Amino acid sequence: MRLTDNDYAYLRSELGPTDPADLDPRYQRLGSLQAVATEVLRERKAALVSDPLSVTVQGVATVNNAENVRALERQITALEELAVDDSINTHAVPVPLWRSRSR
């Protein structure tokens, strides 16, 4: 099962520019677009947290990534909630509705 252009468009909207060669194996392994997006976002969060969240060069600059980490956490939570909502509806099967014939 390969990702379609629409799948890539969705993942770009969640993740920004990403390498399709990285996304295809993840999709094969995980099986859903939300799981792929969540995994990539968790890796980005882990990379941010592994370094100091705040760095100050006295009188020159301050870099603080704490808000970036919070933003990633919010995005991950939203994707996980979306996945839970999708799993609730997995047993719903569309049924065609037919009109009865009028005489």
Give a brief outline of the structure.
With 103 residues, the protein is mainly α. The chain contains 4 helices and 2 strands. Helix 1 packs parallel to helix 3 (33-50) and helix 3 packs antiparallel against helix 4 (66-88).
Structure characterization notes:
The protein is mostly helical. The protein has four helices and two strands, in the order H-H-H-E-E-H. It has helices spanning about 5-15, 20-30, 35-50, 65-90, and strands spanning about 55, 60-65. Helix 3 (about 35-50) runs antiparallel to helix 4. The chain is elongated and about 85 Å long.
Give keywords.
103 residues, mainly alpha, two-stranded antiparallel sheet
Structural class by helix and strand composition = mainly alpha
Tally of DSSP β-strands: 2
Distance between the termini: 49 Å
> In sequence order, what are the helices and strands, one letter per element?
HHHEEH
Question: What share of the residues does DSSP label as strand, in percent?
Answer: 5-15%
Task: Give the overall shape, derived from the CA principal axes.
Answer: elongated
Largest sheet: 2 strands, antiparallel
Question: What is the number of helical segments per DSSP (H or I, 4+ residues)?
Answer: 4
Mean pLDDT: 86
Task: Kindly provide the radius of gyration, computed on alpha-carbon positions and rounded to a whole number of angstroms.
Answer: 21 Å
Model regions low in confidence, pLDDT < 50 over at least 5 residues = 88-92
How are the strands of the largest sheet arranged? 1-2
Give the proportion of residues in helices.
55-70%
